[in-house]
Specification:
The complex is a heterodimer of chains A (255) and B (247). Chain A is α+β, with helices and mostly antiparallel strands and 255 residues long. Chain A is built from nine helices and five strands, in the order H-H-H-E-H-E-H-E-H-E-E-H-H-H. In chain A, helix 6 crosses helix 7. The longest helix of chain A has 32 residues. Helices cover 21% and strands 18% of the residues of chain B. In chain B, helix 1 packs antiparallel against helix 2. At the A-B interface, helix 2 and helix 3 of A face loops of B.
Chain lengths: 255, 247
């Protein structure tokens, strides 16, 4: 064709092959068939997706982790409540909570409230981050399944155990009393301990044992001497025989 | 009791005893959307577009199919509304298509809380037709009807107001299917995501041989078989069609 032979240095121009008579226009209603060379070009220049260095099947499975970690006001409120509960109360007991009828829960709450123990429900997904950043992080293993918190300002472990014994659906897992983590056995031992007043009285008694002996210690030697002299006089008088025994004067008070 | 909302476990992780339990999580309280800056105009529905311009054209115009070819340069972004119909191919909109859009959208939308605006003008381009059954020749035919040319990537109608995309998408899809070119309902976020994905594909393409590179360097003498327009369309447009899968 004429176009092919003319000016080979003008290859870079708009298509040298002006196929005017043959074929359709550039814009058609139907899908215009591409020139084979163009088809080859389109096939060669197709998109190839990037392959990651580590295939996704070798990675740990995506657990659908929450991407939307925006700070929810409600979540912050609940976390603040958890922090207050841990801060204001001396005794915090964690119990496993199995399904109970609503009335039974109300009764349980009532009985515990009588001893000034409150029953609190917190969601694990809120408690766990709060505890992880506080000093109670060793309590984290307890907050796994459904649980409830018994909190109180006084450490009334005996009453709590007595109430919980009557409720089979609530099992004590552990407690944190006065910043001391106790297991179930530890709580029972703590409950068996005498009350504070009794213990204080015992301590005072033990401490005052020695001072109470001071006076008798001081009087010990003189009393001993007096007793010896009495004994001696009695023996002398018995030795004289028949002589009226004169009662020796009582040793006077403290010398 | 607290607001327990039982939810199926996302990942069944067998515990120590090999048993999984349905967990209840915290209810996610989602804030309602903020529609404070939205103003519904006085005439919220699409206005009536004339079938032909007021002054009919005397001079018959050449076909000029290049007004269908390639990407659109106007009406590619949202102005007032949040949702719209995006054209993914080129074509001519006739008065019938415009009426279909106007009536379908007007019937389905709530004029108190949503408004719609045209992003295409009324038909002005005359299209001639010869009468049926006649042989070739005898001059150009008389003007039959008027059309609006639409290129790929152009918004046809825009919708806005106090509504969500999920409320609006069904009837927009119904209307978009009837258009003479491929069209989809789209929102602002959807358009942004589409552009971002295109860009990611373009950047993350592992194939060292791209259309653009081969045409710019005229490798294998490809420009002999390609149009000069392919230099800046990079093989994404072929006639009036938009090849979305091409990078």
């Amino acid at each position: 064709m004429a176009a092919l032979s003319a000016a080979p240095w003008r290859r870079g121009c708009p298509p040298a092959l002006q196929l005017v008579r043959r074929g359709s226009k550039a814009v058609t209603r139907h899908w215009k068939a591409m020139h084979f060379q163009r088809q080859k070009l389109m096939a060669v220049t197709e998109y190839v997706a990037p392959r990651p260095a580590v295939p996704p099947r070798c990675r740990p499975p995506d657990t659908g982790a929450r991407v939307d970690q925006e700070d929810d006001g409600y979540v912050r409120l609940l976390q603040r409540q958890v922090q207050e509960a841990f801060r204001d109360n001396r005794m915090i007991a964690v119990c496993q909570y199995n399904a109970m009828a609503g009335d039974d829960v109300v009764l349980l709450r009532h009985y515990l409230r009588r001893h000034n123990i409150e029953v609190k429900f917190f969601l694990n997904e809120i408690v766990r981050p709060v505890l992880a950043q506080s000093k109670y992080r060793n309590l984290l293993p307890l907050f796994v399944a459904r649980n409830l918190l018994l909190v109180s300002r006084e450490a009334k472990a005996k009453e709590m155990l007595r109430v919980l014994k009557g409720v089979p659906q609530v099992n004590l897992l552990g407690a944190c009393i006065d910043d001391t983590i106790l297991s179930r056995q530890g709580v029972e031992n703590f409950a068996k301990l005498p009350s504070l007043e009794v213990v204080q009285g015992q301590a005072v008694g033990a401490l005052s044992l020695l001072p109470s002996q001071t006076s008798s210690l001081l009087q010990c030697s003189s009393a001993h001497l007096t007793a010896l002299l009495d004994q001696h006089i009695r023996r002398l008088q018995e030795g004289e025989g028949g002589a009226p025994v004169q009662p020796s004067p009582e040793p006077t008070g403290a010398h | 009791m607290l607001q327990w909302r039982l939810r199926a476990p996302l990942l069944t992780r067998a515990g120590a005893a090999g048993v999984t339990m349905a967990r209840a999580g915290l209810k996610k309280l989602v804030m309602p959307p903020d529609y404070s800056g939205i103003v519904i105009p006085e005439k919220p529905k699409l206005k009536f577009l004339e079938r032909a311009p007021a002054v009919p054209k005397v001079r018959r115009e050449p076909r000029r199919l290049r007004d269908i070819r390639g990407p659109s340069r106007e009406a590619t972004d949202f102005t007032q509304g949040q949702f719209g119909i995006l054209a993914l191919g080129g074509g001519y909109l006739r008065w019938g298509h415009l009426e279909m859009l106007r009536l379908t959208i007007g019937r389905a939308m709530d004029p108190r809380s949503t408004f719609a605006i045209w992003r295409v003008p009324a038909p002005t381009k005359p299209v001639t037709r010869k009468s049926l059954g006649h042989r070739m020749g005898g001059g150009k035919g008389p003007i039959d009807h008027y059309v609006t040319p639409v290129k790929s990537g152009r918004l046809v109608v825009e919708l806005g107001g106090r509504c969500e995309f999920q409320e609006v998408a069904p009837f927009l899809l119904r209307a978009a299917r009837k258009l003479p070119f491929p069209a989809v309902p789209i929102s602002r976020a959807g358009l942004e995501r589409m552009r971002r994905e295109e860009e990611e594909r373009r950047v993350g393409n592992e194939n060292p041989w791209t259309f653009e590179r081969m045409v710019r360097a005229n490798m294998l003498g490809m420009r002999r078989y390609l149009s000069p327009c392919d230099l800046h369309w990079h093989g994404r447009y072929w006639g009036k069609f938009f090849l979305r899968h091409r990078v």
